[in-house]
Design a protein that fits this description.
Elements (H helix, E strand, L loop, with lengths): L13 E7 L2 E7 L2 E6 L2 E8 L3 H9 L1 E6 L6 H9 L13 E4 L2 E4 L4 E12 L3 E13 L8 H6 L14 H4 L8 E3 L31 E3 L1
Antiparallel strand pairs: 1-2, 1-5, 3-4, 4-9, 5-8, 6-7, 8-9, 10-11
This protein binds fe (iii) ion.
Length: about 210
């Protein structure tokens, strides 16, 4: 069995959002798809360890925001690698309440959904949502998971359905410096040790001190 077969599936990059007692919460998702057009439904897969998962369970609602290729990688780093439990992610990026849910202004489109069914797997819950509001809010090309990996050199959160340890940790000849917050691996021409003190992780924005030599 060649597990690489599964990496030939295509995905987008989305923000799933909901409310935690009036506070906006959200996380990155790559597994979101339309299931039916009448009624209009979409399905999303969320790891039960994500704080946003508990909030979707509580409120019975979630929004899917489609990100575009020009999305600030820091937004993906923040929403993908930090927890809404201890980071107020929506205070860092402008958002509006659309369809009664928090939606990032940087998005291309959004769908606000009411949970109508769910399916538990070993690690993730698949929520089926009926879309009760949706609109286009930006212009550009939707970001795909492949673009995120190949062009932005993005990494996969351990909570993502597509995470695979051996793919994220390729051995290399030179010393590797990896961001302990988001998993970004430094691959610039300037040796990591010679980067200025105020250098920041291009994905999640933390300083050099959060990088680990591996
Ligand atoms: Fe980082």
């Amino acid at each position: 069995m060649n597990k690489n077969a599964l990496f030939e599936l295509s995905y987008g990059v989305y923000v799933l959002s909901s409310w935690d007692e009036g506070r906006p919460v959200g996380c990155i998702a790559n597994s979101a798809m339309q299931i039916t057009s009448s009624p209009m439904t979409v399905a999303v897969s969320v790891n039960r360890k994500n704080h946003t998962h508990a909030c979707i369970e509580d409120t019975g609602r979630f929004a899917v925001t489609v990100l575009k290729e020009t999305t600030d990688p820091k937004l993906i780093g923040t929403f993908g690698f930090r927890s809404s439990k201890d980071t107020d992610k929506f205070s860092l990026f402008p958002y509006s309440v659309r369809g009664k849910l928090p939606v990032l202004d940087a998005g291309l489109a959004y769908m606000s959904c009411r949970v109508v069914a769910k399916w538990e797997t070993a690690t993730h819950t698949v929520f089926l949502g009926e879309v009760y509001d949706c609109d286009l809010i930006g212009k550009g090309a939707p970001m795909t998971y492949a673009y995120y990996h190949e062009v932005l050199k993005g990494k996969t959160s351990v909570n993502a359905p597509t995470y695979r340890a051996e793919r994220e940790h390729k051995p290399q000849d030179r010393a590797r410096y990896v961001c302990t917050v988001c998993g970004y691996e430094y691959d610039g021409d300037v040796p990591f040790e010679e980067l200025p003190g105020d250098w920041k992780c291009p994905l999640c924005g933390v300083g050099k001190e959060k990088f680990e030599k591996r």
